[in-house]
Structure formats: C-alpha cells, structure tokens
Amino acid sequence: MKNFIKQNRGLAAFIIIALFFAVWGLIFGKGDELIYTVFGQYIFLSIVNLICSASMVKKGGVLGFLSPVIIAILSTLLPICVLGKTDVAFVAFAVIPAAIGFVFGFIAYAVSKAKGKSKKEAAEKVAA
Asked: Taken in order 5, 8, 13, 15, is the CA torsion positive or negative?
C-alpha cells in the first residue's frame, strides 16, 4: 500500500485537495456557491487537476495513463456532492485540464524513457 501511494502521489494529492474543497463547500454551503464554483472548481481545482494528471502520467503505469479519466470523474462528482448538481461547464473544467496534463505528462514520460534508453545503450557501448 505504501508503494502504491508513493507511485501515485499525484492522485493522492488530488484526492486530498478535492476532499478539502468538498468540506469547504459543505461548511460554507448556501450563499457561497458562486465563490466556491469560480475559485474552487474553475480556477484552483483546474490547475491542481493539470499538475496532478501530468505527474501521474510521468510516472507511467496503468493508473497513470488512466489519470485523466479518474481525475475527471472525481472533479465531476465534487460539485454533485457539494452543490447537489453538475453542469457541462464542470465537466469541461474537469476533462480539459486533465487532458492537457495527460499530454504534458506523456511527453515527459516519453522523454525520460528515451533518455533511459540512450543511457543504457551508452553503458552497453562502454562495456563492450
């Protein structure tokens, strides 16, 4: 379990931040929906979504490559839990940053794999 959390720090960080926003939304509740929606869901959580998705894909693994789907589902369920409803905008602000993060993470993953492969080939040449 400890190794699983260590490998998927991006998902763990996103879940912790999403829980924080859920509690924040439930505490402030009625009258603060606009502040919660604009600041929490549209701005801050979108940035966190992008960063966590990129870090998960960069690590590789099956869960990393499913990160846009997992984070988009969690981001879409969050307004349902807090506000009791969801909207197309919530889904868009969940899926688009996750997809962008996926692309950035995949590029970083491909670059790190290429560097690892070139280092391995260089080590084999030196050994030969």
From this structure: negative
